[in-house]
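queue> holo job accepted (zinc ion)
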Amino acid sequence: MVDTSAVKGALRRQQIETPSWAYGNSGTRFKVFAQEGVPRTPWEKIDDAAQVHRFTGVAPTVAVHIPWDRVDDYAALAAHAEERGVRIGAVNTNVFQDDDYRLGSVTNPDPAVRRKALGHLLDAVDIMDATGSRDLKLWFSDGTNYPGQDDVRTRQDRMAEALAAVYERLGDGQRFLLEYKLFEPAFYMTDLPDWGASYAHCVKLGPKAQVVVDTGHHAPGTNIEFIVAFLLREGRLGGFDFNSRFYADDDLMVGAADPFQLFRIMYEVVRGGGYDPDTGVAFMLDQCHNIEPKIQGQIRSVMNVQEATAKALLVDGDALRAAQEAGDVLDANAVFMDAYNTDVRPLLAELREEMGLHPDPVAAYRASGYFEKVRAERTAGQAAGWGA
Ligand code: AOS
Ligand code: ZN
Ligand code: ZN
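queue> job finished
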């Protein structure tokens, strides 16, 4: 039997980080649909992130993206976040939007471009110093479009050199999370295409180099929960970029496409001891809300992660082990599915009430009038969207 008060205690401690870029306008390469009331500045993005925490109680940090969230004074931005009841989380770098990066950033054949890209990564660590952030999230769009375009092996050397320089610069209590992605924007070869490549670079450098699993960055059918179990066992799972994919890197709401997969992932996190905040596994969202309201989309996503986590915590470990050891395939599977098929919404509603929150965060947010207020206020100026 699973102790539900222990499950609630664990859920109360959960921390899910929302990304600043989820609050701004975003879209596909075909169209960015502008929405009313979106933030005009990084300060306003933090205001919106604070609303997600206000109504869910489990989203106390917001990731920033440089230069989309460039400000003159990052300590002041961190103080602004604290004032709003949240903190700045991971600092995300951007070495993919300058013309200079046409042939890559840190793996570019031109040493001057490589120096520029590395400079940006090192500047991001300065920002972490100012904001008190622990994590630097590194995603590289680097790769090639055509066979023979550049030397695959030399590009790995360049990648290793840049990562070593960043690693060297990290202070105490700081680490980098190295993301991988199967393809896009490079279509033939990506320099960090999978967890194995990220993992190998991290292992060479040391414990402050960790792998981040973006759930949308795999080929269809990939067993992501196996990757999670493996990385946790090796002490190299730095965190997640949660989102859903139907086709490629869709960045849709986590748990929307395949809640069962999310449950299986969260089960491996719990099983591998990666759930407690002090183990350093960061639960981050990496999503864009192109057609739906953004703050509500983030609230819904946080709730989806909570639901999958609750189900994972409800797996009866003793019964599962007994069935596994007895080789009882169907019983073991049934124990697993019992947890997945549990409706955890009443448990989460109860937990929220115990935390002094409204049991239905979406309804509470809608009733709060926040959207109407910011829609009226934020009428002037350029919206701070993806790529702004
Ligand atoms: C890109 O595909 C990666 O998922 C990045 O983590 C992230 O989405 C990007 O840096 C922000 O749009
Ligand atoms: Zn990502
Ligand atoms: Zn992505």
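queue> The chain is about 45% helix and 10% strand.
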